[in-house]
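Before relying on records like the one below, remember that each one covers exactly one chain. Contacts with other chains, cofactors or solvent are not represented anywhere in the record.
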Amino acid sequence: MEMTLTLQNGIPILHPHGKITGKTVSEFRDRLGLWIDDTNTPALLIDFADVHKLDSSALGMLVNAHVIAHRHETEIGLINVSKRIRNLTLLTRLVKVFQCFPDAEAAVETLAPSTFSGAVVRQLPTTPP
């Protein structure tokens, strides 16, 4: 699975591409855990613009990521969520766990003034070690 990480106003944004199903779920979980462990920021955004499919294991992985992030006092936000994935978050009630935003600009505008002021982000690898 291809994934990249960008920063926007100091906020890390993870960009997975393709399907998050089956064996790609564990790869995504490992990278997400690494990036959560290596950042010193109160939030991480996951951009679903290029994700075409999630399965139940991917939803479970997101819950697990939320738990890991919570231990690090990091909030995970979801951006560019398709209607199909949005419906999954509604059905599974994950919409109560993750803030969803239409795009990165909306997330940064909403969260940056209060949540992200002074956040420090280390340079992270765009691929796993």
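The two ends are 14 Å apart (CA to CA).
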